[in-house]
Amino acid sequence: MTASMSSSMSSSESLCLWLALDRLTAADPEHYAIWVLKSPYPGGHVHHDRIWNHTLSQAWQTWQSMFSLRGLPQVPHVPSAYVPQLMLDDSGDTPSASQTNSYSSRLMQHLGLNLWQWLFDGPVQSSLDHSCGIAQGQSTVMRLRLEIRDPELISVPWEIMQAQPGRPAVALNQQILFSRTTSDVDPLADWGLDNGLKILLVVGHDDSSATEDRAASTLSLEREAELLKNILESRTDSKPGRRVVRQVDVLLQPSPAELVKHLERSRYNVFFYAGHGIPAPDGGLLFLQPNATLNGTELAQVLTRCRVKLAVFNTCWGAQPERSGQQAIPRSSLAEVLLHHGVPAVLAMRDSIADEEALSFIQEFSQALAARKPVDEAVAIARQHLLTLYKFNQPAWTLPVLYMHPDFDGELLTPMPTDITRLPGDSGLGGRTAAHTISIRELSKNGKVWPIYRGLMRVGRLPDNDLVISEPWVSSKHAEIFYRRAAPEETAEPTYFLRDFSRYGTYYLSSKGWQQIHRQEVPLTSGTQLRFGSSDGCLLEFIIEPITPT
């Protein structure tokens, strides 16, 4: 059991509610279908039909009239000639600045509430409620993934969905981690976890500097690159043992060949682009130089080949599809193209974002990643920061859009050891305490023994676990065995627990026979027999042995 088996970075090992949304082409244009493709409990896989009604269309158009920095795109089922009326009340008076601020806040909330009520209706709401209940019972977060199959609805800010007034928007919630996804992808390869962040920062052509002289433009880009590098490398953590190495390499207006060569030469886990970009049918165009572009499809090929796990774009409209006439082109946004080609996570902007807002977001986001937060949680933290700085009634916090591959759990870095109370007198050597030796023993002719060091053992299929089990039903991060102080007496037998994180659960032998736990914990006593992932798995035994004085 010492060899590791290849595994995928699988979200199946975390609680996940996955919704898919598409237009019913055989019915009227305003008819949509909502499917629950994945749910934490068997009865949660439901289907529900919805009509995109006039109230929702009006809320969406009105929201765009105030918050969109571009021309209004074609909105489903609303005539292009329709222009919403921005009414604070029935008086018809011109609103004051304070009224406008109040109105914009109500407008932001109004669309968020309407989107939630439309999407989470009937059995879909019930599936969500049950899923959240399971997550709460297991004291864990739940991932909410939304697959938007109708390209006309890509532009809708689903991130602002809000269950009730006073409740946080879904993309601000750290208990329900929100992202967009797609089912039309190949399985994700296992690229393992890294010990640090290695970022390739590419600063491309800045369209705003087109009228400047060349020397001034170059100086401006150099300053921008230095600022971004400092932000990505800055740290606020005070505990040296928790610090993560952050290496940032900078490319200033590279040619496409230079970019590819650099990616192939060094192994980066994060790609960061800042510069001019425009929508296009094949994933948009990134202007590396004024006359040198790279489209999304070309970039996707090299990113997946070089095993980049996260791509971040500080460029306008990277999360927006290209349009042909009045129709949105399916799978044409930069974020979607990269995801479909196998990049595990892509973060792009839904609309133009101000430099100050972008820098604030990037700083918080990189700090959260360096704190070993999953990508979707790091986005939620940084989004909360934007809302605090630029307020709820401003669009800044709504602009970042995160796409994640359905097999990706958001983890970039190896986790920190769980904060477990140290055993009394634990030397940290050989799984020994002052009075006991703690270990896992294989119940076979080999009888191999794995000591438990410092009150903690991680069990799973990946090689960074303390006990590596290469059986196919064992998850990459399957379970942990840990010490929890239960009695103050130094002579008391240590109290250990097994906590399961897996897809298929863990089996233990009790007085009632073999029992299964799944995403729960159970106390262990000396002699408890265990099987991980399957009742046919390798038979192991948890052992606490007193040390005999010599």
Question: Main attributes?
Answer:
2 domains; Tumour Suppressor Smad4; alpha/beta; 6-stranded mixed β-sheet; 9 helices; 6-stranded antiparallel β-sheet; 27 strands; globular; 550 residues
Alpha plus pi helix count: 9
Q: Name the strands of the widest sheet in spatial order.
A: 7-6-8-12-15-16
Number of domains: 2
How many DSSP E strands? 27
Q: For the report, how would you describe the main beta sheet?
A: 6 strands, mixed
Describe the SSE topology:
Elements: E1 16-23, E2 31-38, E3 47-51, H1 54-67, H2 97-119, H3 123-137, E4 142-148, E5 176-180, E6 197-203, H4 214-233, E7 246-252, H5 256-265, E8 270-274, E9 277-278, E10 285-289, E11 292-295, H6 296-305, E12 310-314, E13 323-324, E14 327-328, H7 334-340, E15 345-349, H8 355-370, H9 375-390, E16 400-404, E17 436-442, E18 449-451, E19 456-460, E20 467-468, E21 479-483, E22 496-500, E23 506-510, E24 513-517, E25 521-524, E26 529-532, E27 540-546
Parallel strand pairs: 1-4, 4-5, 6-7, 6-8, 8-12, 12-15, 19-20
Antiparallel strand pairs: 1-2, 2-3, 9-10, 10-11, 13-14, 15-16, 17-18, 17-27, 19-21, 21-22, 22-25, 23-24, 23-26, 26-27
Helix pairs in contact: 1-2, 4-8, 6-7, 8-9
Short description:
With 550 residues, the chain is of the alpha/beta class. It has two domains: 11-415, no CATH class; 436-546, Tumour Suppressor Smad4 (Sandwich), CATH 2.60.200.20.
